[in-house]
Design goal:
Blueprint: E1 4-8, E2 10-12, E3 18-24, E4 33-39, E5 46-52, E6 57-59, E7 67-72, E8 77-82, E9 91-98, E10 114-115, E11 119-123
Parallel strand pairs: 2-11
Antiparallel strand pairs: 1-3, 3-8, 4-5, 4-9, 5-6, 7-8, 9-10, 9-11
C-alpha cells in the first residue's frame, strides 16, 4: 500500500519561492508515476508536474521554467521546488502516485490511485 505524506507549503509574496516535499513509500522495482496536482477554490484539479521511475519529468505549461519536480530514491521523497510564484499558483497541492508510467495523460488527476493529504500554498 502506497503512503504519501506531504510537508512544506505556506504563504509567500509574489515572486517568492517555496519547496514542497512528499515522503513516498513505493516499490522501487515496480513502474510508478509521481505527480503534483493542485486545486484552487472553485476550480478543477490541475496536473502541475510528474516524474517517472526513470526520472523523466513533465510540466504544465503554466509552471514550466518556474517549477522543478525531483525525487530522491535513497530517501523515498518527492519534491517540488517552486520559484517566481504568482497569485494564480495559490492552491492546495497534492502529492499523488499511480502504479504505471506517467504517459501522455500524466496531468489527469483521475488516473492517480494514491494521494497525500494536501498542503496549502498561498501567494499574495
Amino acid at each position: 500500500h502506497v503512503q504519501l505524506v506531504e510537508s512544506g507549503g505556506g504563504s509567500v509574496q509574489t515572486g517568492g519561492s517555496l519547496r514542497l516535499s512528499c515522503a513516498a513509500s513505493l516499490n522501487p522495482t515496480s513502474d510508478y508515476c509521481l505527480g503534483w496536482i493542485r486545486q484552487a477554490p472553485g476550480k478543477m484539479r490541475e496536473g502541475v508536474a510528474s516524474i517517472d521511475r526513470d526520472g523523466t519529468t513533465t510540466y504544465a505549461a503554466s509552471v514550466k521554467g518556474r517549477f522543478t519536480i525531483s525525487k530522491d530514491n535513497a530517501r523515498n521523497t518527492l519534491a517540488l521546488q517552486m520559484n517566481s510564484l504568482k497569485p494564480e499558483d495559490s492552491a492546495v497541492y497534492y502529492c499523488a502516485a499511480k502504479d504505471v508510467w506517467c504517459g501522455a495523460l500524466w496531468y489527469s488527476s483521475e488516473l492517480y490511485s494514491y494521494w497525500g493529504q494536501g498542503t496549502q500554498v498561498t501567494v499574495s
